[in-house]
Amino acid sequence: MIKSIFAAALATLISLSPPANAASSVDGSLDEIAQQIIERTKTDGTPTIGISTFTHGDGTCSDLSNYITEFIVDSLFNAGQGSIDIIERSQLSAIFREMELVFDGTIAPDAAKRLGEIEGVDAVVTGSLIQFGEQVKLQARLISTQNGRLFATARSDFPSVGSVAQMMAARSRAQCGFTAADGSATAPQTTTEPAQATGLATPSHRFSSDAYDAEVSSLIYAKSRGETSFAIRFKNTSKTTVALSYVPKTLSVSDGIGGFMQYKDGWNGLRGCEYASRLQNCNSSDPLQATSIAPGKVVQLHFVMQGEKGLADPQITLLFELVVTPDTSQRDSYSVQPVSFYDMAPKVK
Fold first, then answer.
1. Co-location of 126 and 15 in the same domain
2. Against a cut of 0.85, is the pTM above it?
3. Which of 176, 194, 223 is the C-terminal boundary of a domain?
């Protein structure tokens, strides 16, 4: 009964990307996120929501991300006032071990469906933290266990100052408590002394997901004009044809000294998803809205941003979102994923 009620509620959701709200503290941001989640999962019954891991953009965890993962439960409980049932991360991890699935903070469509079929979970909440200047952007993603699709997001910002910055200082995958298929802990992969990535100036030029790898292959800052040109290479690392579509309105570029850049021109390569309210057109259904990439193939994205002139030592941080369809033969599997590149030193001309 709850399943059918919940499905009807999902069909009425009108926005996948709500506007971000600014909070004055981590706890305030959690309360805002929780309220948005409650609003987007309202039904006539009591849905069951599983809490997965909140990670940083590079897939690692910190004291801060673990705090958010644990205390989002309290915020949801208080905001829901009995309107939802909650399965905490530790319980969810145990369920994954029983199902002999790898629990690495991501929820594959098949795994989400099995959760719904076996454990009666209606939706799973996962999320990410992205530092942007002096703010931390917190995003929660709600995934339906009926079809494995992302059906809503919730967002908020909070300041990265004092103890918040200290809690993010050391990060690793081991801190996430991820488990391998045999139930053992995954090996640590710290970010304090990262390994050098082949062909890249720093590992912050690179971003990896289950379906593709992305790297900033060229980054040039023209000092006299204040222009920065970007070239990002996307490689399909899976065994199926994937589709990628950039969401232009999500593009955010900072220069490392408090300034933000504006899009100028030169956009070409990867196709863009222009309408956030029609993301279903960006899953390769419309060839003008998404780029399909065969296994092992590469596409590039080029654009130019306008910022301050004469910067002596810019450190570029680039954030945006992609509509990702990991298998174009199953277009309902698309989701919106944040992509991030941090503190990149461009070639200065």
1. yes
2. no
3. 176
Tokens of 58: 């590079």
Query: Strand 135-144 vs strand 150-159: parallel, antiparallel, or unpaired?
Result: antiparallel
Question: What CATH number does residue 211 fall under?
Answer: 2.60.40
Whether the Cβ atoms of residue 112 and residue 144 lie closer than 8 Å to each other: yes
* Strand positions, DSSP E, 240-334: 242-254, 262-269, 291-293, 298-306, 316-325
| CB burial of residue 192 (10 Å; 0-12, 13-18, 19+) | exposed
CATH number at residue 28: 3.40.50.10610
Q: How far apart are CA 51 and CA 122, in angstroms?
A: 11
**Domain around 272:** 203-348
Dihedral sign from CA coordinates of 113, 108, 52, 11: negative
Q: Chunked in runs of 10, what are the mean pLDDT values of the chain (349 residues)?
A: 42 41 79 88 78 79 87 87 80 63 56 70 84 83 79 85 82 67 43 32 67 90 92 92 88 80 81 78 88 92 91 87 91 85 86
